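Dear support,

Our group has been running a series of protein-ligand predictions, and this particular one with biotin is the one our PI (initials K.S.) wants archived with full inputs and outputs. We had some confusion internally about which version of the output was final, so please treat the block below as the authoritative record. The input we submitted was:
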Amino acid sequence: MSGDLTQTSIADALTGRFGSPLRFHESIGSTNSDALAWAVEGAPEGALVVAEHQTNGRGRWGRSWVSEPGHLLQFSLVLRPKFSLDKMGLLTTAVGLATAEGVEDSAGIKTGIKWPNDVMVVERKLSGVLVETRMLDESVDAAIVGVGINVGWTESDVPANISERATSIAIWAEEPVPRPALLAAVLLRLETYYDELAAGRVEPILDGAADRSVVLGREVVARFIDGSFLIGRALSLTTTGALEIEVEGESRTLNVGEIEQLR
Ligand code: BTN
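Confirmed final output from the archive:
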């Protein structure tokens, strides 16, 4: 176990304004689904759903997310952004950055970010982020920020189907990292970046994400959900969180996509 997760251990660890009210489940389908349903019922900004286990955890592009009791930190936060829809891309950038920094704060591990927001340690994925937006009357009613972090797996017990591309905090950290403290560190970082975004200050997010990027300056293959792809050189992050790449001498802006190969 990587630090027991209970309603009390979580509530005791949290120091900021995110995480109240709090729901903890031993097992649930998906924390994102639960948080979304809660948002529809009126959950306020900062409401947090944490689960020890997800039976139907979701990843990007309809993929499933591998969960195993005791080994992960999985949560979804309800936000009620006042900023416009075009800032939502940067919110997902901010969540990746906050997760990377929260891991570093609590575990002392150097982390990178693979655009748009996978947190990486030495080219393997440590954490995935799924931000889902609920629109109402053409404005953002709620954003559900879902984060999964692999915490307790050692080299030998990362599930076989993801062992070639996934890693875990326990493989790299000198000391075990209690999950409530990790959660608190990530939420605190996110609070700061969320406030910056709300105040219209995008530079701290863009600079932080660029500094940690494992993509910028490299030759990349960008894949899209329809199976198409582009090969080019990653140039920069735009003010909306998009990735600018150079393809055969021309600049292309990617709002969605996955970087699958790095050279
Ligand atoms: C990805 O890398 O594709 C995103 C993975 C996001 C997983 C987290 S775990 C907590 C939250 N609940 C979900 O169903 N998904 C997100």
